[in-house]
Amino acid sequence: MARRDLPIWLHPARGAAFADYATEDTSRYEIWWALGWPYETSAAMARLVFSGLLEQHPTIKIITHHLGAMIPFLEGRIGLGWGDQLGSRTAGGDLAHLRETVLPHRPLEYFRRFYADTALSGSVGGIRCGLDFFGADHVLFGTDCPFDPEGGPGFIRGTIRALDTLDLADADRARIYHGNILRLMRLPDPVTTRPGRVSS
């Protein structure tokens, strides 16, 4: 995909059989879905960072679901814990493996290279947090349609309402709604390339 210069979509997956605690047989209260899926996304992002993939392929484009899940909210913890203190809590074989992982940049810099969609069920605070972390050039409009009680329209309305609440520059708003996906997919802008349109 890096050679083709096209994005990869990363979506979490975990079922109820994945127990919340080792002493239990299944997850309870749908924790596997509400908290498990964002954890899976965050863990996958971390494994990709520490695998060196983003260093080996600096132009690779990976779009994460739920605005990068836990990563933007835990920016401070990640910056300190995986920056200045990486390895201080590790022993045994895992420490040896960690020492083999040599990244020329701090892990937080690689996390910022990911892209993320706005599928947060209309959460203004969550979208603001993700935008602050990734920047508007790395955020794409997404809604989780059709998985709301209305079969899709509710999430779409909620996400648009949340974006309207935020104080965004018109150019950033355009990037999020359509510009970023057109750029990532290397597609022409249907507005500016419409037949008969006179360019200025």
Automatic annotation (TrEMBL):
Keywords from the named record: Hydrolase, Lyase
Pfam families listed in its UniProt record: Amidohydro_2 (PF04909)
Occurrences of domain Amidohydrolase-related (ranges): 1-186
InterPro entries: ACMSD, Amidohydro-rel, Metal_Hydrolase
Gene3D superfamilies per UniProt: Metal-dependent hydrolases
A GO molecular-function descriptor: hydrolase activity
One term under GO cellular component: cytoplasm
GO biological process: secondary metabolic process
Protein name, entry field: Amidohydrolase
Species the sequence originates in: Streptomyces alboflavus
